[in-house]
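Quick one:
INPUT:
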């Protein structure tokens, strides 16, 4: 390995001193971010349920709200496994995505399939953010040899992927067609 002017390595590797603590700090920061995001969704998903016209869409979001409550609980378990306090760090991305969803509700007519299409689009943006976050967290946990944590995160990742798939099915099977027939 190349070295700089002192005995300190020029390039950090997985085994270099200080590399793992920095990666663990990033991992913890990302956990706190998604912990805030999931808690925020527990508060905002009921608004989406209430605004939806399609019974199938409402049911799909209600089911995911129940899963989201479980995701929050799993994150608390992860913090416990890591010996850390479950502290949330505001997630600007999730705040922006949920504000966008609220804007769609405000800008569409109540009781329309068009609003439902907007709710699905906004919900899928949220799901894709969560899928990206949990996918990255699974990889980081694996890299940090946190096998139990990686397994818990992978379970949540699969549920987020399924929620996205179910939203697509609601759109394809019903809502998009109805919206295309609205004036």
């Amino acid at each position: 390995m190349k070295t700089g002017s002192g005995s300190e390595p020029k390039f950090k590797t997985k085994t270099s001193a200080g590399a793992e603590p920095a990666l663990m700090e990033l991992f913890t920061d990302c956990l706190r971010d998604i912990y805030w995001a999931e808690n925020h969704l527990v508060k905002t998903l009921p608004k989406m349920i209430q605004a939806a016209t399609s019974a199938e869409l409402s049911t799909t979001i209600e089911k995911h709200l129940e899963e989201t409550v479980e995701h929050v609980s799993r994150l608390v378990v992860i913090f416990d496994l890591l010996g850390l306090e479950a502290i949330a760090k505001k997630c600007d991305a999730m705040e922006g995505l949920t504000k966008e969803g609220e804007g769609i509700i405000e800008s569409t007519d109540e009781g329309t399939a068009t609003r439902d299409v907007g709710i699905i689009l906004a919900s899928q943006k949220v799901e894709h953010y969560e899928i990206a976050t949990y996918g990255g967290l699974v990889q980081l946990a694996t890299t940090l040899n946190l096998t139990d944590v990686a397994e818990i995160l992978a379970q949540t990742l699969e549920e987020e992927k399924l929620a996205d798939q179910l939203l697509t099915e609601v759109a394809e099977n019903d809502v998009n067609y109805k919206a295309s027939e609205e004036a």
